[in-house]
Amino acid sequence: MSVTILGIESSCDDTSAAVIRDGLLLSNVIASQSVHEEYGGVVPELASRAHQQNIVPVVDAALKRAGVDKHDLSAIAFTRGPGLLGSLLVGTSFAKGLSLGLRCPMVDVNHLHGHVLSHFIRRKEDDQVPEYPFLTLLISGGNSQLILVKNYNDMEILGATIDDAAGEAFDKCAKVMGLPYPGGPHIDRLAAEGDSSRFHFAKPHIAGLDYSFSGLKTSFLYTLRDAVKTDPDFIEKNRADLAASLQRTIIEILLDKLDKAVKATGVKTVAIGGGVSANSGVRTAVADYCRRRGIEAFIPECSFTTDNAAMVAIAGYFKYLDKKFCGYDEVPYARVTL
Ligand code: KG4
To answer: What is the pTM of this model?
Structure first.
């Protein structure tokens, strides 16, 4: 009998629902919240309210696009954490209500597992998926981690950021340049036209496989502050070169530790995930690195890099096959590791 999973994602500022049948994606609907743009970051209370408005139409659209009747669902998978508590509460409560109404089991999903497992989402039967064990570079607005994935439910964090995440480095530096939030995609776009060797910013010297991005942010800030003193139009005149140089530095920091982790583990497969894995420079650099080392690279479709329910549905699908259901007394969690 086929297994049909409805995934629900509401951990931050994207309300998303997706349907996966036997590992194949039938629909993935995402409603992004533009309400935060004027504040330069996500406002938690506004995010929860927007989720409340979006969740019913988004789930409805996902079921319709998939051509699936809600009574045919095998289980409802939802993001239980980590994320913003109010936002998570909306998805969790909705999943509980739907599960009770349909008498269908629930599966709770760790958002980070979802990002890691997004490479198992298939659009057609013969789509390639990674073989265990593989290494994932998970880079988002809140995380920068190197994860050894031994199985869908067995992941080991080999290294993580000790301060800012890679996405924060993009966003905070972009803010200094006067770019809108989130700045990562704007830096990406500008970098394509700039000279990446023009400026040099500080790089961290952290032992082991941990990352650090706060020094780079400070070095970027000071470079701009000093330059603007002598030329108030400095940022405007050098936008593309600043963006390209910043992006190159972030990529070098990411790749340096990725290389160390590959050598330490001897893995033959590397995957990337999270919002920053949409960055065109990161994608090319990881693909080139893997080609040079004869390693298989899994670079996600851009629609699976930022928060989406397809990754929640696929993670839920694996748990469903293992009969790892969750009860109605489970509550969301704001923070968790793997
Ligand atoms: O995974 P994600 O959607 O959620 C959070 O962890 O918040 O990641 C969002 C992050 C933001 O920092 C955003 O600037 C970054 O991903 N991002 C990018 C690009 N697209 C999204 N950073 C660099 N280049 C991009 N193209």
So the answer is: 0.95
Environment class of 32 (CB within 10 Å of its CB; exposed 0-12, middle 13-18, buried 19+): middle
CA distance 38 to 61: 28
Q: Where are the beta strands (DSSP E) in the chain?
A: 4-9, 14-21, 24-32, 75-81, 106-110, 134-139, 144-151, 154-160, 269-273, 296-298
Exposed e or buried b for every residue in 219-238, given b needs 16+ CB within 10 A? Answer: bbeebbeebeeeeeebbeeb
Q: Which residues line ligand 1 (CB under 6 A)?
A: 12, 140-142, 167, 170-171, 182-185, 188, 274-276, 278-279, 306-307
Distance 276 CA to ligand 1 centre (A): 4
DSSP-derived secondary structure letter, 156: E
pLDDT, residue 34, reads 85
Distance 98 CA to ligand 1 centre (A): 31
Q: Name the residue with tokens 């003193």.
A: 229
Across 259-276, b (16+ Cβ under 10 Å) vs e yields eebbeebebbbbbbbbbb
The number of angstroms, rounded, from the C-alpha of 286 to the middle of its chain's C-alpha atoms is: 16
pLDDT tens string 263-315: 999 999 999 999 999 999 999 999 999 999 999 999 999 999 999 999 999 99
DSSP structural state of residue 161: B
Residue whose pair of structure tokens reads 């006067």 in the numeric block: 178
User: How do 134-139 and 4-9 pair as beta strands?
Assistant: unpaired
Tokens 């480095």 label which residue?
A: 169
**Residue range 236-256, pLDDT digits in tens:** 999 999 999 999 999 999 999
144-151 vs 296-298, strand pairing mode = unpaired
What's the pLDDT score for residue 310? 98
> Which of 153, 177, 155, 175 has the alpha carbon at shortest distance from 164?
175
Position in ligand 1 atom list of the atom nearest CA 281? 24
* Distances in whole angstroms, Cα of residue 14 to Cα of each of 44, 50, 294: 12, 9, 36
Which of 306, 308, 335 has the most ligand 1 atoms within 8 A of CB, as the residue to mutate?
306
| Token couple for 112 | 């980070």
